[in-house]
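Researcher: Quick one. three chains, 1023 residues in total.
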Amino acid sequence: MPHRASRRTFLKGLAGAAAATPIVARRATAQTPVTVKYMTWWWAEKGRNDAWRGIVKKFHDAQKDIRIQEVGFPYSEFFQRVTTQLAGGRLDADVLSFYDELGIRLIKTGALAPVDDVVQKLGIQEKLDKTVHQFVTAGGKLYGLLGVNVPYALIYNRDLYQAAGVAKAPTSQEEYIQVAKRLTKRPDQFGHAARSTMPEQNGWWSDISHWVMGYGGQWVKAKKPQLTEAPVINAVKAYKRLYDESMPQGADASTYRRMAWEGKIAQYIDNSANIGILKSGNPAIYPKIFTAPPPWENHRAINIPNYVGIYAGSPQRQAAAAFLEFVYRPENFQQLMEAALDIYPPYQGAVREAYLKELHWVSGYLASKGSPIPALVEGLESNIAEVRQIVLSQVSQVLTAGKAPEAAMADAQKSVEELAARV
Amino acid sequence: MAARDVGAGRGPGPLRRRRPLIRLATRVALYITVAGVCGAVLFPVYWMVLTSLRQTRDTITYPPDLLPRNVRLSAYGELLQTMPIATWLGNTVVISIGVMLLCLVLSVLGAYALSHFRWRGRSAFGFLLLVTQMLPEALLVIPIFVIFRRAGLIDTQPGLILADAAFVVPVGVWILKSYMDTIPREVREAALIDGCGPMGTLWRITLPLSVPALITVGVIAFFDGWNEYLFASTFITTSDMRPASVGLASFIGELATPVELVFAATALFTIPPVVFYFLMQRYFVSGLTSGAIKG
Amino acid sequence: MSDRVHPGGRRALDGSAATPYLLAAPVLLYVAVLILYPIGQGINTSFTRTELLSPLPPTWVGLANYRRLVHDPAFWRALGVTLTYTFLVVTATVVTSVLTALLMNARFRGRAFARAAITLPYAVPEVAAVLVWTWMLSQQFGVLNVFARWVLPVSENLPWLTNPRMAMVSILLVTLWKIFPFYSLVVLTAFQTLQAELYEAARIDGAGALACFRHITIPGIAPTLGLMTLLATIFSFRRFTVIYLLTGGGPADATKTLVVSVYENAFKFFDLSYGSTIGVAGLGVTLAIAAAYFAAQRRLGYGEV
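Model:
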């Protein structure tokens, strides 16, 4: 009995093996897909994560050899984790996103591979936006492609303006401060919102930098700090007035953006990515949000470029480059930008004019004349964090401890000079 | 003479007076104090849960409503639908139990060595254990990362357990040792004379008498493994293996943090360790006064 | 007595002389490889110039970092903040945990629930705890203002996190909330070692509750209190997440402890060597405190260490 049964099963097994063999043989000649790890904080960003996932899906559908794996850390510690891994010998990624500050370091330490070949393949050398890529270009080579650039402009809630009789957006600093004061009825409504606490140093630095640029200055010129010059002093004074009169003091950006979508902030200066947040937080407010250029004549403000690049130590550089080449094709990048509500293209033709025309809030951003932060600390680009810490520490005393702006900036000037001498 | 009420639990407690009225007043005062303390301590947790149940516009008003009016469960719904909560919690449970077991075993060995014996280098050993706690984690993260990378332990659960437990073991040793020191000499010597040997004494006498401290060390190790964040986020890159502490932080976006979701997730994550502690309560009875030394 | 019964005495019964070393070895090896060696590396780094994410390799600079440290007013300020914070936290912790443990040791209905409830702050992840406290301490919307205005004669919301003095109070409050369950648990455990017989005898002698506390309880848990104080001090020096996320060291560096300064220098300014230097300075201070504790223990005779 067992003998027959085992013969049965044996034959069955043989048949099965015979049937399976051709498939096995076929598999052996086909390639196993290569995994490309894409390390970014964007997987956690509402809206942007889905935009990227859409492109990844399109990539997966278009070919079978390369698979993208999502890897990442939250934005607040992205810097530190990447640094730790690199300092520990190897970054666990093939493609990664990074912002200007981190990019400068990564290039210096040779952690990024040049992407000139991707640009060549796409044929966009001439159309590439040179200014926005200046900080990822070194030694004539390009080390990253713009993933998203967010310009800053004056955002206002048209209903609140109309309710208070504000006919058009302010066009000078003084006017802005006055309008802000008029529109502030604590705690239900505020005429301005910006960051002012150390846990949000980076954002605070952006917020105050606009004002410095508006007054025609910058923090550091040719390695010499300009902190005692008029533009910086005026910027600090303006910030202090807004802090006392019109801001929700101590509220972080996450909070005041939520306040904005609840209709409690009448006007503020924030970036274009923020509009997507407002829209998803409260679709009803979206039609009421409009923008104007930054409220000063020269329309200057900062912008924050985030790039995508290839890790130099990746064993999958070719696959990584293939992925980037796919993403940056005009039809694909347009899709990405529209899904994420971005407006600043890495090269001409990467965004559809028709799409931009549809957005009712885009005018202020298009008029904004942006420069990234490293441009404002000319000569000390590798030490932005220290300059920032010194300056904001003093501004903090102006805002919360009643120190005079001139005295505070004089102290900051001294410290930054010492820093410049040291590095 | 009125009967003296001595039966109340070990240790200090409110003195039992003879007059029933004063007793009643004391009891009432006790319950009020307990309620007050629990209320004050739990208020932030209450606030967290309340925020997770509210709509955005109700959280950004002043003065905020102290009572749960207008609440809804949508944050929990969204959370459970969009995030792999079960996976995260599962990972965390594995890590916490691993840390707890490893820590208990090693703490017992180390504490017994420090408490029961006199030997050269005893002080140095105890001191070195404390030294492990004296340098900030930020400075240790990179060297430990290098060690783990060379050992191939990056992105593995055993690796994370090893890293977490390393920091808890010294604390566990000291707490356990401190407790073991209170076991009277006579008890230990009686066991040795009975022919137990040091390990037998450990197993039959010392450990049973140290149950409260063992529970404490177990709870501390479990909680530490549950909430540990720095190493978890640095060493684990595969999202399927993420523990809950990292999953929670992943909500904190560049531009906005969905506070309702974070708090909803926190509420879910906080319940298991507290339940665990609650269940361990019943074993929190001293063995010392349950008949070990009489006469 | 044991000597008469067994030749060689108690020692002979206690296993070989190697037993304690064998017991301690696994623990020592484990922490030596994973922690002590990295600490050694950290100390070594403080004698170099090591820049993170730099193409240049570390170079030996001897005591240069320490010379810079000694002349750096930011370091002395951070040290002062750390010592203030530590002193306040440790004092508050010891007091509240003893009182809480006393409370939780009394017999009342629902004690198990109360004990479990008290551990909730310990169970809440630090990130979430800071988020909810930041929210509660918000000058604009914080619910704590509601309570403060009931109790204190203030007409406006308080700048909990934006005023340098109040920021220190805030981090103390949040720290205390987060850590006191741990210490209460330790003290509660210690209470379990106190023998009921002592209290019986004292009551027979007519001692009141306060006298019992002073003469039985406190001496009984004194070693534990000492250990707690030491651990609380050591942990205070290295407490990072709560402070960093709540105030970032601000406003105006009012809450910038040594550890925050270490993180800043190492990971924001990329100067791992100077960060290590500050860390080693902190290590030195805690070493001194621990050594003082051990010496005091020996003198007071609370069992040899």
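The CA atoms of residues 6 and 12 of chain C lie 8 Å apart.
Researcher: Thanks, that's what I needed.
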